[in-house]
Amino acid sequence: MTYFRELPNLEYENFLSDSNGSGDYILMKNIFVRGKLRDDLQNVFTIFNKYIIEENERPDQIALKLYGDPGLDWVVRMVGEVTNMPNDWPLSSQQLYEFCVEKYDGEKGMYETKYYQTTEVRDPQGRILLAGGLTVDKNFTIPDPDPDHQGNIINPTEPVTNYAYETNLNDSKREIYVLKKGYIGQFVSDMRDVTTYGFNSEFVNPKTLRVSNTRVTNP
Q1: What ranges do the domains of the chain cover?
Q2: How many CB atoms lie within 10 A of CB 78?
Q3: Which CA distances in Å does 36 have to 4, 178, 187, 218?
Q4: 101-133 pLDDT tens trace
Q5: Of 38-42, 115-119, 185-189, the least confident
Q6: How far, in Å, CA of 191 to CA of 37, rounded?
Q7: How many angstroms separate the CA atoms of 58 and 71, rounded?
Q8: C-alpha 44: how far from its chain's center?
Q9: In the predicted model, what is the mean pLDDT of residues 12-30?
Q10: Ramachandran class of 160: left when φ > 0, alpha when ψ lies in -120 to 50, beta otherwise
């Protein structure tokens, strides 16, 4: 993942036992610097495309497919607001099954009912009276809209199992926005601009700051 190559550096005084003295420094990446998509661009849909993540597909594979460079996987993740792998990334079918078996203590628990939801109800003219997918109680009822069944009530509900719930949640992670290829160059350039240091007392070069290492010892 080339994202870390884009991050600026910090030089810390070497605190290890093999230090050569106060002039010995360790170079490390400044992981506290984090890029994000500009707020004013999030609603400019002309520069994005919707993308459906396929089974077992990784960010680097998407970057290769869309941009010809697997090293731009960080762009896929940043634009798609995937900040926590693997929590924000869809599991494969096998991974999801194994996750559910463990979470719900086996297949029996996996297929137990988690909650009930409505099924769609229409009147004789085809108008929607009740939308499907609303969470309700098991005993939820409404009057039967069929004029031939006046006075009757119906129970337009269906159970949703733990596995179905986790599957729906997992599938919701498959749709992300990706940056159109024509904007990649500008995006990477902007990223490099925001990860460049300005001149200050700790300045070494635009990509490096020298930071003092405060050693805490017992009195």
Answers
A1: 3-90+173-211, 94-170
A2: 20
A3: 14, 14, 11, 41
A4: 999 999 999 999 999 999 999 999 999 999 999
A5: 38-42
A6: 9
A7: 12
A8: 20
A9: 63
A10: beta
Instruction: Tell me the C-alpha distance between 113 and 122, whole Å.
Output: 26
Averaged pLDDT, 26-39: 60
Cα 132 from Cα 164, distance rounded (Å): 15
Q: Which long-range contacts (CB under 8 A, 24 or more apart) does 29-38 make?
A: 29/4, 30/209, 31/7, 33/7, 33/8, 33/195, 35/6, 35/78, 35/191, 35/194, 35/195, 36/78, 37/78, 37/79, 37/81, 38/190
Strands 142-143 and 121-122: unpaired
Separation CA 155–CA 197 (nearest Å): 64
pLDDT tens digits along 60-86 = 999 999 999 998 998 998 899 898 888
pLDDT for the residue numbered 28:
65
pTM of the shown model: 0.70
- In terms of DSSP bridges, do strands 208-211 and 9-13 run parallel, antiparallel, or are they unpaired? parallel
Euclidean distance between the first and final Cα of the chain, in Å? 44
Tokens 């990649």 correspond to 184
* DSSP label of 4: H
Q: Six-digit token pair at 192?
A: 């490099």
pLDDT tens digits, 134-146? 999 999 999 999 8
